[in-house]
Design brief:
Structural class: mainly alpha
Largest sheet: none
Shape: elongated
Oligomer: single chain
Number of domains: 1
C-alpha cells in the first residue's frame, strides 16, 4: 500500500529535486527515487505537489431498498 507524505515534505523534496536530481533527493529525504522524480515532474508541470483526489464515490448499500 502506498504511503501518504506531508505536503511540506513533498514540496521541499520536489524543489530540491529540481536543483540536485532525483538520486540525491531520494537519499536526503529518505524517499524512493521514483517518488522524487514524480514530485519534481509534477512541480515542473503544475507548480503544485498536492495529491489529487483519493478514493471515489461509493453507493449506499441499502440504496436499492430505499423505497421499502
Amino acid at each position: 500500500m502506498s504511503k501518504y507524505y506531508s505536503l511540506d515534505l513533498s514540496g521541499r523534496a520536489a524543489r530540491y529535486g529540481l536543483k540536485h536530481g532525483s538520486g540525491r533527493t531520494a537519499e536526503t529525504f529518505s524517499i524512493g527515487r521514483a517518488t522524487a522524480v514524480r514530485w519534481a515532474d509534477k512541480l515542473r508541470k503544475t507548480c503544485d505537489v498536492a495529491i489529487g483526489k483519493v478514493g471515489g464515490h461509493r453507493r449506499a448499500l441499502l440504496e436499492p431498498h430505499q423505497d421499502w
